[in-house]
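Backbone-to-sequence.
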């Protein structure tokens, strides 16, 4: 039962990670209440989630609010752009299905175009905030990078979009009935997204992440070498013992002959 008291055990580290992700979700929801601060709150959320995925120890509350402050301006601008995209899509849906007098063929063409635009905005929203949390760029550069990376990683982008839709659907349908569900869904979605973002950043040449991978491989190789050296050392000792025994036996034979 000592593993229950050991803070470095796998079980306790797993519990600490769950606690941290849930607390980050609570902090994000609280900091998002003014609505216009959602961008900074989500950027800080992904900043901390990426650190958790990379196993970078840091003070949870202090680091979150420090990241919130750092990402406030650019995160808010990205959020406002996302809001503009949502408003644009909403107005077009209203025009197409409520006020627009369109024939079926034209409606279908506009629907396909609007669907592609919606997916593009969704992809940008998925990638932009983690990029803003990780790298120092202009807002325009972050949005362009988010779009092009999402296209380059299209299967992954579709999977993350599906994840967001499926996980957040219950919370959007009944947010007042199960408020805890929102916290669980936000923490789960952000953590899975952060894990995928770390892989994407490594693919596109993030030196720190690739450096950590190289360091881990070196540690594994060094440990393997140590094991091999210990095994060879043990074998050498056995050989030396055998040599000593054979020498002593030969000496006894010579004494007997003499």
């Amino acid at each position: 039962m000592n593993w229950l008291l050991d803070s470095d055990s796998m079980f306790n580290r797993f519990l600490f990670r769950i606690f941290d992700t849930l607390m980050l979700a609570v902090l994000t929801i609280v900091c998002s209440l003014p609505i216009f601060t959602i961008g900074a709150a989500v950027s800080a959320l992904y900043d901390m989630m990426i650190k958790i995925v990379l196993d970078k120890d840091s003070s949870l509350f202090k680091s979150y609010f420090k990241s919130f402050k750092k990402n406030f301006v650019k995160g808010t601008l990205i959020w406002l752009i996302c809001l503009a995209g949502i408003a644009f899509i909403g107005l077009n849906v209203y025009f197409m299905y409520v006020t627009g007098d369109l024939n079926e063929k034209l409606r279908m063409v506009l629907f396909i175009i609007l669907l592609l635009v919606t997916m593009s905005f969704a992809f940008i929203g998925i990638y932009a905030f983690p990029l803003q949390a990780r790298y120092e760029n202009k807002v325009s550069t972050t949005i362009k990078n988010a779009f092009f990376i999402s296209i380059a990683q299209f299967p992954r982008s579709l999977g993350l979009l599906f994840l967001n839709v499926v996980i957040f659907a219950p919370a959007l349908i009944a947010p007042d009935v199960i408020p805890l569900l929102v916290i669980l869904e936000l923490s789960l979605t952000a953590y899975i997204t952060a894990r995928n973002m770390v892989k994407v950043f490594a693919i596109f040449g993030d030196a720190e992440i690739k450096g950590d991978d190289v360091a881990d491989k070196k540690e594994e190789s060094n440990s393997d070498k140590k094991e091999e050296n210990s095994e060879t050392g043990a074998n050498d000792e056995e050989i030396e013992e055998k040599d000593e025994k054979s020498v002593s036996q030969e000496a006894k034979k010579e004494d007997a002959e003499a």
